[in-house]
């Protein structure tokens, strides 16, 4: 894999993991659009998954670094809530376990349907349609008046937003986008919706990285992929940190409309390329 490809894919992963535009969809669309074939051959799928692990590791470090103080508080208070039942329950302690609860729906769906998702979803046509449909859904939810704060996040909210997160296993949906949509629909303000989405991503990304890293270690890192992986990790980490900071800064004064417009435009462009025969929609 050329280093420039690793840089581009690292930027794509870092930005699109936290912007509500779908990282998995863009990681498939960018090579398709430019005609890259870095993961061809009989072991292509395994190599691609190994590289994806590297990119997700970078974004995990980025969001963990940004929310490090919150994470330390959640881990401490959540642990104390579990081991010391006589201690008064704190808001942070409850939030910690609600965030854990929110990961259950996606974990169950992924465990039982991962192969079916990999085989049947992820084509450019489905990604384009998903970008449009779930982008419009985000726009609809964002028009609702939301005043609830992060501290009001409860068990019901965790299950509802967690169920929405399971939809993100379909490339093109966007994990951050659908969880922000769910949180906005439940009445949370934009800043709280984004923070819920970002903190929820930590156990999900960590679980995916640990699970896939085991497979990568078992299979071994393919020859020639070591440095592209290192570059991809660094690039996705830096761009991911910028995306988290930029998203939170943007939505404090503006709506999610720019992301909705981008998603619809990108989806229409992909469908146009397919309709005109420039690119194959089933690739």
Short overview:
With 283 residues, this protein is mainly α. 75% of the residues lie in helices and 0% in strands.
Description:
It is a multi-pass membrane protein. One of its GO terms (molecular function) is undecaprenyl-diphosphatase activity. The protein is built from twelve helices and no strands. The chain has helices at residues 3-18, 23-34, 44-66, 68-83, 91-102, 104-120, 124-142, 155-166, 175-185, 190-219, 226-251, 257-275.
Describe the structure using short key phrases.
single chain; 283 residues; mainly alpha; 75% helix; globular; peptidoglycan synthesis; transmembrane; cell membrane
What value does the average pLDDT take?
89
* Count of β-strands: 0
Main β-sheet: number of strands, strand sense, barrel status?
Answer: none
The total tally of domains equals 1
Helical residues, percent: over 70%
Number of helices: 12
State the end-to-end distance: 20 Å
